[in-house]
Amino acid sequence: MATSINVDYSTTIPNNIGLSEDRRVLKALERWHPGYLNWWNDMGPDGFQEKLVYLRTAVSVDLDGWAKFGYVRMPEYRWGILLAPQEEGRTIPCGEQAGQPVWQEVPGEHRAILRRLIVIQGDTEPASVEQQRHLGKTAPSLYDMRNLFQVNVEEGRHLWAMVYLLQKYFGRDGREEAEELLRRQSGHEDHPRMLGAFNEATPDWLSFFMFTTFTDRDGKMQLESLAQSGFDPLSRTCRFMLTEDAHHMFVGATGVQRVIKRTCAAMKDAGIEDPYDIDGIRKLGVIDLPTIQKKCNLHFSLSLDLFGSELSTNAANAFNAGIKGRYKEDRIEDDHQLVDDTYKVMRLIDSEIKLVDEPALSALNARLRDDYVKDCDKGITLWNNTIRKEGVDFQITLPHVGFHRQIGEFVGANITPCGKVLSSDEWDGVKDDFLPTKADGDFVASLMKPCWEPGKYANWISPPKVGIDSKPGEFEYVKIEG
Ligand code: BYC
Known about the structure:
- The chain has helices spanning 23-43, 111-131, 142-169, 171-183, 205-227, 232-270, 278-283, 289-304, 313-320, 364-389, 424-430, 438-447; strands at 52-58, 67-73, 342-349, 352-359, 414-415, 421-422, 478-479.
- The protein is mostly helical.
- It has a three-stranded antiparallel beta sheet. A two-stranded antiparallel ribbon has the order 3-4.
């Protein structure tokens, strides 16, 4: 397969994989394209399909300058198939065949497991676009609106990336799966998206920023693991997707930071020192820090569920097969087989939380989740530095991993964000302190009014430090008129 760093725009589907010479796959993708556009028009950003948006498009996959900025109508965005360059001499990084050359074709014995992972990954991409489709209408600025749409078109491209793998390597099954990816819908009663968090609503912009902080970061960890795959086309696809995901987490973490900054500034101006003076703070038209903490608790716990059960034979099989590695597998120094190794897993035993040695192979989901929690701390530090600089006495914290879980070891347990195990009665008395209530949701919703004048920001969020592509403050990121 020919690959180059630069993207070929001569076919209807931009690519760097020599698609014009691969007629079978080109045709299959061209057949899938109209269905994709129908899906985008029906389920993508509602009310903005005709607007010109200042977006970046990939023109090259090398690290420097792969992006080109310009005004585009979203349905005309050049979604394409982009793979990171092939690494000479790459070997399978883990499992029974570790050290042997990577596969350029799907190994028959691992076909089912690979297809399942690619389909699950693919399913999350359109799901997030569906979850966010109404947010444009309440964007707090044109800058934020543009960032939302950038995230959306890139998730659309990530769907293309997985569909390419399905069409190229999985024949008829792959084509059917590609159709199903357009048929399932986030939150749909009969054909929902595959993973829990992708069927939840993203009702407001604070949720969007939390989602891009925490759920996109699960995306990062999963893509990092799949980038370690011995199936080289999957690895190369994921390596390029990771460069795009970094921007999504930036949008999330700086979005929450800007909300926090505005709240602290408004408190200072009004002479409010107590962060728990909820009514007083809400009267200022900003979001109180305890509500931000509750949203953080919700989105972090929903994202933890995306790692599956702590102990999983699926995960062990994928690792053994060399299909999915650990986070930064190629930089870990051990035998990459883990046959006799153990890993400490947090478990709930007789209502007590304990660290237990488990077979390392079974515990791979728990290990990836632990790596994820460490990575999440970066966002939290950013937010707490802002609160400290503004002089407010409050700290955002990540809740305990057992808090509010729907998957795995802690399902059904009543564990507080501090990690205390409660009885059901005790839990009912305090749960509204930990998760957003209807009243919290209604209050946040009441602030979600569009603010679309170039250079202006809604009262509840502060402006960013710098513009996109070094544009000045009043730059018209989305042309709303005309
Ligand atoms: N919801 O052995 P188990 C992203 C199912 S996000 C519903 O515990 P396993 C993005 C599981 O499928 C990253 N079902 O877990 C972010 C299995 O069902 P079957 C997406 C769940 O398989 C933002 C059963 O329970 N990528 O990119 O070891 C915006 C037992 O499973 C859930 C990936 O996830 C759940 N939360 O691990 C846009 C990577 N969890 O097979 C995009 C690919 C588990 O028995 N996926 N189940 O019917 C995987 O690596 C694994 O499938 C999982 C689960 C980590 C998801």
